[in-house]
Design a protein that fits this description.
Elements: H1 2-8, H2 22-33, H3 40-48, H4 51-57, H5 59-64, H6 68-77, H7 82-87, H8 93-103, H9 124-149, H10 152-174, H11 187-209, H12 228-236, H13 238-258, H14 262-295, H15 301-319, H16 325-346, H17 353-366, H18 370-390, H19 394-403
Helix pairs in contact: 6-8, 6-19, 9-10, 9-12, 9-13, 11-15, 11-16, 12-14, 12-15, 13-14, 14-15, 15-16, 15-18, 16-17, 16-18
């Protein structure tokens, strides 16, 4: 029936007949739809120039870009892959980005020559950044020395002044340099994790043992048990962390310049990330050994290394534009440590002993440091897997360059 309807429709050719030309089809289509269709010549030009439509969709990106690499990273962030680039008659995203960059008109955008601008003082900003990176560790070491040399009210004053000085120095260092990130703050959970590293083990051991009288080694003499060595090592490790972050960013930028495909870039950047991460952990392990020997305290390698890895990975992800995973994992880790303490105290209530059983079993097997080691270790492993996926993309390093 539908076929008979088509035969009865006016203007419909009967039988196969010769095919009408493109102009006749366009005219008939325009008459039926009530609107003007694009001419066939325009369609042919669009098919002959497949990059033109892509250029139109990403014109703002192309006009804002300072080099083709930024366009390549932006295209990758929008889901364009090397396989997609092949449909635009290019071997990879990088060559596609080069053509798009060359085809965007830039009137008067020629960059000024270096001699036209003011000549910066050699080594000035770099020297200031180096001093700022060392400042938190130096101030923390001075505060620990002051605590060792004082007692009573003077010791309390030294502790308060030391905490404020180290906090301000860390804030100043994190506002510039390779670990600077324009992200929402995570200082609350970072302070919690560092505070737990300083006081949490003593508090947990006190709760599990049933009070100060149950503490080993005669520590129930009025002095609160604290572990200073890991915190001092972590503050001293800020400078190595900044150096490792700089090495990773610089190496990734060089790979971005030399790579000819997104897959090639990811494969070459992943060893850089793991190498910088391993270099930091090695430096932190040495600092934990040194501070433990100087202060006469256990080095606590598992607890210090997992906490340092967690903080470094969260910061690296924020620096390179991934602002959600770091705060989420830091919050979950701090909540796990707080929950461990809460369950131990809740287990003292009548009939609630089962609540503290898991934490007490972990403390009996690994000591009080087992709780933060497990919490920070799981968080650091989660962020490491996420970083290996996110920080090996070209878009991560283009966004970091724009924030410099």
């Amino acid at each position: 029936m539908s076929g008979l309807g088509e035969l009865d429709r006016p203007g419909t050719p009967r039988g196969p007949g010769p095919r009408e030309d493109a102009g006749g089809e366009d005219a008939g289509r325009a008459g039926r739809d009530g609107r003007q269709s694009p001419p066939a010549s325009a369609a042919r030009r669009s098919a002959a120039d497949p990059v033109k439509g892509l250029l139109h969709r990403h014109r703002e990106l192309c006009e804002r870009a300072v080099d083709p690499l930024e366009i390549a990273a932006g295209l990758e962030a929008h889901g364009v892959t090397d396989r997609t680039a092949a449909r635009f008659r290019h071997r990879d995203v990088f060559s596609l980005a080069e053509e798009m960059y060359a085809r965007v008109p830039r009137d008067g955008d020629t960059p000024a020559r270096p001699e036209d601008g003011p000549t910066p003082r050699p080594g000035g900003p770099r020297a200031a950044g180096f001093v700022l990176a060392l400042l938190p560790g130096v101030l923390c070491a001075a505060a620990v020395a002051g605590l060792r040399l004082t007692d009573g009210r003077a010791r309390l004053i030294v502790a308060v002044v030391g905490v404020l000085a180290v906090t301000m120095a860390l804030g100043a260092a994190l506002r510039r340099g390779p670990l600077r990130a324009a992200t929402r703050t995570t200082s609350t959970w970072t302070c919690w994790l560092l505070g737990y590293a300083l006081l949490g083990d003593g508090l947990l051991q006190t709760a599990v043992s049933g009070g100060p009288d149950g503490l080993p080694d005669g520590t129930a003499d009025g002095a609160w048990p604290v572990t200073v060595a890991p915190v001092l090592a972590l503050t001293l490790s800020y400078a190595p962390a900044a150096g490792c972050a700089h090495l990773f960013a610089a190496g990734a930028r060089r790979k971005l310049l030399s790579s000819r495909g997104l897959t090639d870039f990811s494969a070459s950047v992943r060893p850089l990330l793991l190498g910088a991460f391993g270099l930091y952990l090695g430096t932190l392990a040495a600092l934990l050994t040194l501070t433990g020997a100087v202060l006469g305290q256990p080095a606590d390698w598992p607890q210090g290394l997992t906490l340092g890895a967690l903080l470094l990975l969260a910061r690296l992800l924020g620096v390179h534009g991934h602002t959600h995973a770091g705060p989420l994992v830091l919050t979950a880790t701090a909540a796990a440590e707080a929950a461990a303490l809460a369950t131990v105290f809740a287990g003292r209530l009548p009939g609630c002993g089962f609540l503290s059983a898991p934490v007490e079993a972990l403390v009996a097997a690994c000591g009080p440091a087992g709780v933060p080691t497990a919490a920070c270790g799981i968080g650091a492993l989660t962020l490491l897997v996420h970083a290996c996926r996110r920080l090996t993309r070209a878009s991560a390093h283009a966004s970091a360059e724009r924030t410099r």
